[in-house]
Amino acid sequence: MKKGIYIIYMLIFQAIVLMAKTHEPVYQDPFDIAAGGASLSRASKEAILFSNPAQLSVGSRIYRWVGLQNTFALGKDSLEFAQSLAGGESEESGNFVQQVIDSPVHIGIQSSLSVLLRNMGFATFLRAEPDISAKAYDEVGLPQIRARAEVYGGAVAGLATHLWQQLHLGLTLKYLYKSEPDLSISVADPAAIQRLQEDPSALTNQAQLGQGLGYDVGLLYFYQGKPLDFRFAIKVDDVGQTTFTKDQTPFLQTVSTGILLSLHGSTSSIDFAYDVRDLMGAYDRSLSLRSYYGVKALMLGRLGVAAGMYEGSPTYGALVDLFAMRFGATFYTREMGEYLGDDPRSIYLAYMAVGW
Amino acid sequence: MKKIFMIGILMFGLFSCQDDSQELNAKQKAEKALNNNDAQGAIDILVPYIESVEDDYEAYCLLASAYATRAGLDILSIIQSQMNPQEGGDGSDDVFSQIEAFLPDDTSEETLADINLAIASLESIPFALLDSDEKYAQSATIQLVLYLPIRASVILVLIRSGAYSTTEGLSAILESLQGTLAIPGETAVLQEAVQKTLERIESRPGETQEERLANYLNI
């Protein structure tokens, strides 16, 4: 009987997984990204509110964190692009397009102000990441330049409680601003470029900030042992989907799951985590682009190192916690295209947090 | 605890064993191959695909680009020279002079064969559909406006090297240039150059168009 239940469970799960794709959260902690972005079972500080609010009720401390964190993102290739600009190599537009093909431009900022208590938390945030890329051949065989940006901001509030024994339930209410302008122009179509110059409304309409109200629900099973902890998380993002004003596309409802094994002492720990997001395939992406896994080691509560795989590409990073200040750096690669290897962007993150 | 632990381990194993490569469709594979400088790989994918799905006109455009790339043409450079006439080429409004700089150093009959295949691929799209706002129609017209005069220039190179019959070559050059003007859509820089070149040819002495062209080209 038990075997039968296992088989049914596995078949259902496998069917769901085979249909699945992924969706990235609007806000992620850079150290969590360094650990492959697997944060459903255990996230850092304010990222708990975005990753899985059920984590709020884990632990005994009533006061957990109040602070400000700033992150700066720079695409690895953007450095080469900047160097070529400084060298005056892009004076001719031909060189410019070729340089963007060779070195896509990606920069970004992310800021948050947050308060976390046991069972509840609040954060305001802003994230903006413009990106310019090009390719020699688009789907109809001609050179194309693509300009896009992700701009998110707003306020989120999380509540959590433990239902019984080791099971925790959390809810995040969120009021979001969102803009995702995305414009592709064929280099070979001067008429399209001219039309855009004469009537930029196509771009300005896309760039308008839409507002939306939504909520996420998370569950967390947390078994605490010595020296091994085990966590299992399930989360529903954007329940019923989060719609936005100003014609911005909605955030679709997604179901995600994650597990974590943690070996720990009194001040040090090593976590192994694995997340699969968007199990139901709302965003129609491949399994590799929905998979996030990695290792996070915290030593003496002051030094952290992490490594993992984020959407099929390696990540790593480190942080130093100096009481009221945290500094860190992360390197990761994000797939900006439709499939793994289509349009990858390697990104450096540098961040600093002030808080207690 | 043991049960939950088992479920977790099984889940982990399940995810890890999944085939995590998204199945790309033929056009995505071909596009990826082309962007990785593998024109032959793109052709090998697209030819059987087009045989099975005859009305996917985007694929015809992609195949044309693959043939043109295999021919040794740098499409990006050619397009940009047309958008910025002061850059690239020799600044002349003679179509042969404009294109000469972009022909591969080892222009040969194979080059011509590939350009002919690129044009044939684009001409597989019904002509009536070219005058539309569809992305494939815009790509097809842009590519035809490029490849037809390039074919004329390649034939000229082959005539001069003795690899192509002069009589047949002159007719083929005229056919390509006149075909360029028939492509619908907004007039491109290259079409204007073709127009001016044809007007100059007409002003040369000779009883037939071929004779006037031979006079113009000094062959």
Low-confidence runs of at least 5 consecutive residues of chain B: 16-21
The share of residues in helices of chain B is 55-70%
Succession of helices and strands of chain A:
HHHEHHEEEEEHHEEEEEEEEE
Q: What fraction of the residues of chain A are assigned to beta strands by DSSP?
A: over 45%
Q: Helical percent range of chain A?
A: 10-25%
Description:
The longest helix of chain A has 18 residues, at 2-19. Chain A is globular, with a radius of gyration of 21 Å. Chain A has helices at residues 2-19, 30-34, 47-51, 76-86, 93-102, 190-198, 201-207; strands spanning 63-75, 105-117, 120-135, 144-164, 167-179, 182-186, 210-223, 228-237, 254-264, 269-276, 291-299, 303-310, 313-322, 325-335, 344-355. In chain A, strands 1-2-3-4-5-7-8-9-10-11-12-13-14-15 form a 14-stranded antiparallel barrel. Chain A is α+β, with helices and mostly antiparallel strands and 356 residues long. In chain A, 18% of the residues lie in helices and 49% in strands. By secondary structure, chain B is an all-alpha fold. Chain B is 68% helix and 0% strand. Chain B has helices at 2-17, 26-35, 39-52, 57-70, 75-83, 95-100, 109-123, 135-160, 166-181, 189-202, 209-217. In chain B, helix 3 runs antiparallel to helix 4, helix 4 packs parallel to helix 8 (135-160) and helix 9 crosses helix 10. The longest helix of chain B is centred in the last third of the chain and has 26 residues, at 135-160. Chain B is globular, with a radius of gyration of 23 Å. Chains A and B meet through helix 1, helix 5 and strand 9 of A and helix 1, helix 2, helix 4, helix 5 and helix 8 of B.
